[in-house]
Design a protein that fits this description.
The chain has one domain: TIM Barrel (Alpha-Beta Barrel), CATH 3.20.20.60. A 5-stranded mixed beta sheet has the order 1-2-3-4-5. It is an alpha/beta fold and about 120 residues long. It has helices at about 35-50, 65-80, 100, 105-110; strands at about 5-10, 20-25, 55-60, 90-95, 115. About 35% of the residues lie in helices and about 25% in strands. It is built from 4 helices and 5 strands, in the order ββαβαβααβ. Helix 1 (about 35-50) packs across helix 2.
Length: about 120
C-alpha cells in the first residue's frame, strides 16, 4: 500500500440491527506515468485482498479516469484470482476541480457515488 493512501472506517452508529459499516480507502492522484500506475495497482491489490467496500478516487479531468480505474481493478482481480476476496469494490469519485464538475453527468453515470470536497 502506498504511504500516501488513507483508510477510513465509516460506521452508522445507530442501534438498529441493520446498521451498515463500510470500509473506504482514498487513493492519491498520481500523474499518468509508470510509477504512478504502479502505486495505484499496488493499492488496488490491497483493496481486492481486503474487505474494503468503497474507494475514493480523485477526478481531475473527466469520467474516463473512472473507466480507466475500473479497468485496473478488473485486471488486478483477474491476476489475483481466488486471492481477490472483494471484486465488487465501488468507486466514489472525488471531484477535485472545475473540469470534473463540467463532466458531472458522465461521472454520475460511471461512478457509484460522488464527493465534492469543501475548500
Amino acid at each position: 500500500m502506498s504511504a500516501k493512501s488513507q483508510s477510513h472506517d465509516i460506521t452508522d452508529d445507530s442501534n438498529e440491527p441493520n446498521s451498515s459499516q463500510f470500509e473506504v480507502k482514498e487513493l492519491p492522484h498520481e500523474d499518468s506515468n509508470d510509477e504512478g500506475e504502479d502505486f495505484e495497482r499496488e493499492d488496488v491489490r490491497f483493496i481486492l485482498q481486503n474487505d474494503i467496500d468503497f474507494v475514493i478516487h480523485s477526478i481531475y479531468n473527466n469520467h474516463h479516469e473512472i473507466l480507466d480505474f475500473r479497468s485496473i481493478i478488473k485486471e488486478e482481480a483477474a491476476a489475483l484470482g481466488p486471492l481477490a476476496i472483494n471484486k465488487d469494490v465501488r468507486i466514489m469519485a472525488k471531484l477535485e476541480n472545475e473540469d470534473a464538475i463540467n463532466d458531472l453527468n458522465k461521472i454520475l453515470e460511471v461512478s457509484d457515488a460522488i464527493m465534492v470536497p469543501r475548500g
